[in-house]
Amino acid sequence: VGGVGGVTPMTAARRLELVADPADELQVALADGARAQHVDGDLQASRQSFERAYRLAAHAGDVPAMALAALGLAGLWVRERRTVAGAVLLEERLAHVLSRLDARDPLTLRIRARLAGEDDYVRGEHAAILAVLGEARAAADPVALAEALSIAHHCLLGPDHVQLRSQLAVELTKVSVRTQRRSDLLMGLLWQTVDSFSAGDPHAGRLLSELRDHLRERHHLAAGFVVSAIEVMLAIRAGHLDDAEPLAASCAKSGAAAGDVDNEWWSAAQLVTIRWYQGRLVELLPMLRDRAHSPVLSAVDDSSAAALAVAAALDGDRRTAASSLAALCGTDLARLPRSSSWLVTMNGIVEAACLLQDSVVAERAYQLLRPYAALPMVGSLGVTCFGSAHQCLGVASLTSGQLDRAVDHLRAAVQHNLALAHWPAVVTSRQRLAQAYALRRGPGDTEAGRRELELAASEATALGLPALGLPALGLPGPGLPGPGFPDAGTFADCRRVGRQWRLAWWQRSVLVEDSIGLVHLAVLIANPRQEIPAADLVTGLAALGRGHGGAAAHPVLDHEAIGEYRNRLKRLEA
Predict the structure, then answer these.
(1) Where are the beta strands (DSSP E) in 161-308?
(2) How many secondary structure helices (H) and strands (E) does the chain include?
(3) Percent of the chain topping pLDDT 70
(4) Could you tell me which residues come within 8 angstroms of residue 408 by beta carbon, excluding any fewer than 6 positions away?
C-alpha cells in the first residue's frame, strides 16, 4: 500500500478489487476515505471511497459505518455540495443515519454538528452550530470537538467575529494533539493563518511560513490549495500582477487536483482583482455574466454580482449595472449575508454606486461598513484583497458628497495600504485622495492633491500600472461624477504595448493600432500643463518613427499642409 522501494502505491480501487468479503471491503473503503481526506487532503478521492462505503454499509445495514461514510461525504469544509440536488442528498443521508443511531453514540454529536453547520452556513447564521459546539466541549470525544470547532469557524467568516474565530482556530490546533489526525492540525494552522490575513495582522506571514513547513514535510492537497490562493493574493499586493496571473492559473489546477469545488471561482476572483488594478475589468464582462449564475458558487457569496455591476457600469451598460446593484441591495442592504466575501462584495457595491451616481446606496453602504474601517477587504480564505476598508468608505463618502469625511478616510487608506504592502491599492487610494482634495478645494488642498497624484504616478510607473496624470488646470479630479461632482476632469494614460497603444481613462482602457496621432497624444498626456512647441513635437515624432518598425510611413507634414499653416498665420497676424 505504501509504495516502498519504487513500487507505485496501490490505488483505492485496486485494493477493493482484491477484497472478497463485503465486510472487509467496507472497512477498506472507509479507511481509504479517511486516509484521502485527513492525510492527503484529496477531497475527490475521499468522496469516491466514502460513497462506496456508504452504499456497502447501507446494504449491510451497518448504521455506524453509514454514519462514518456520511460524515466523510460532508468533507473538510462546510457546504461542499453546492448544487441543490447534492446538498439535499447529503442532508437526507445525515438525517437518516441520525434517526437510527443511539442518542448516546458519539457519532450522534458529530452528525448533529455537521447538520447544524450546513444549515447555519447557508442562512448566514451561527447560533445552532455554537450550541452544538458547547455540547462537544462538554463531551469526551476530541474528534467531535475538533469537527465542531472547524465547522463553527467556517460559519463565522464574516467581519463581525474576528476575535472569536481566532479563539476557535487556536482551540482546534490544541485539540489536534488529542485527535492525532493530521487534518485537524493543518486546519487549525490554516484557520489561524486565514484569520491573521483577514485581520490585517502584520505577522500573518509567520503563520503562513509555519503552514508551508508542514506541507513540505507531506503535502495535503486541500490545505495546499488554500496556501496557493494566499500566495496569489500576496503577489497582487506586491504589485506583481504579471506574475499573479499565471499563479492564479496554477492555483486553479491545484484546486482541481484536490477536488475542491471552489477551484474555478477562486481563480476567477483573482483575475477580477488583477484586471481591476490593471484598468481592464471590462474585458471580463462575458465571464462575469456567466459566473454570476453558476450553481457552484457559495450560497452566501455575492462578490461575482458586485464585480458584474462595476464592469457593466465601466462599459456604459447602465441597465445591467443598475439591475445587478438593485439585486444586491434587495429590500435592505443590511440583509446581505456577512460571509467571508462580504467586504469584497461591499467594495464592489460602493464602486458601482459611485459610477451610477447612486448616493443613497453609497451612504447606506457607508453606515454598514463603518464599524470595519480597520480591516483589509480580504475575500474568502485569503484568496484576494482590495486593500483597506477605509478606501471603500472614502469612495462612498465622495459619492454622497461628504468631502471632509472622504479626505479623512482616504488619508487613512493610504497609510493602511502602505502597512499592508498592497502597492496597487496604495496607488488607487492616493488617486482617490487627490480627487477628494480637488473637489473640496480647501486651503492647501490643491497642492496636497498634486503631491498625492505625483506619488501615485511614480508608484504606478514602477508597478507597470495605469497612472492618472495631473488634472488639467482648473479641473477638479478623476472623471467619476457623483452628486455634487463637477462634470469634468478626465485622467488618461497612453503607452506602447508591443506594436499597439493602450489608451486608459480611469478604470477603462482600449488597445488601438499605432499612428502618428497616438504618439502625439502620448507625449502630450505625459507632459500635462506644459507648453510643447509643435516643431519639437514633430521632431520627436520623426525620431520615434525611425526608432520602431510600427510607425506610420507617411511624412509628418506635406507641402500643402505647410502652405495652409502659413496662410493661416498671415490671417491671424492681420
Answers:
(1) none
(2) 26, 5
(3) 87
(4) none
Nearest to 109 by CA among 134, 82, 83: 134
Q: Grid coordinates in use for 57?
A: 454499509
Q: What is the pLDDT of residues 270-308, one digit of tens each?
A: 999 999 999 999 999 999 998 878 877 887 889 999 999
CA distance linking residue 235 with residue 355, whole number of Å: 28
Q: Measure the CA angle with vertex 486, ends 485 and 491; round to 5°.
A: 95
Question: Are the C-beta atoms of residues 208 and 215 closer than 8 Å to each other?
Answer: no
Helix axes of 263-278 and 423-440: crossing angle, nearest 10 degrees? 50
Residue 468 confidence (pLDDT): 57
Contact 274, 282 (CB under 8 A): no
pLDDT at 483 over 50: no
The C-alpha cell at 97 is 443515519
pLDDT of residue 562: 82
Q: What distance lies between CA 94 and its chain's CA centroid?
A: 32
Residue with cell 487627490: 434
pLDDT at 19: 53
Phi, psi of 505 (to 5 degrees): -135, 110
Q: Which residues of 385-409 are buried (b: 16+ CB within 10 A; e: fewer)?
A: bbbbbbbbbbbbbbbbbbbebbbbb
Given a cut of 50, is residue 4 above it in pLDDT?
Answer: no
More confident of the two residues 187 and 484: 187
Judge contact between 222 and 207, C-beta under 8 A.
no
Task: For residue 460, count other CB atoms closer than 10 A to its CB.
Answer: 23
| Single-letter amino acid, residue 144 | A
pLDDT at 362: 97
Q: Are the beta carbons of 377 and 389 closer than 8 angstroms?
A: yes
Residue 288: CA count within 13 A, CB half-sphere: 29
The residue among 36 and 466 whose pLDDT is bigger is 36
Q: Look at residue 571 and tell me whether its pLDDT is greater than 70.
A: yes
Measured CA distances, 294 to 54, 154, 262 (Å): 29, 22, 11
With the CA atoms of 126, 129, 130 and 136 taken in that order, what torsion angle do they form, in degrees rounded to the nearest 10? -170
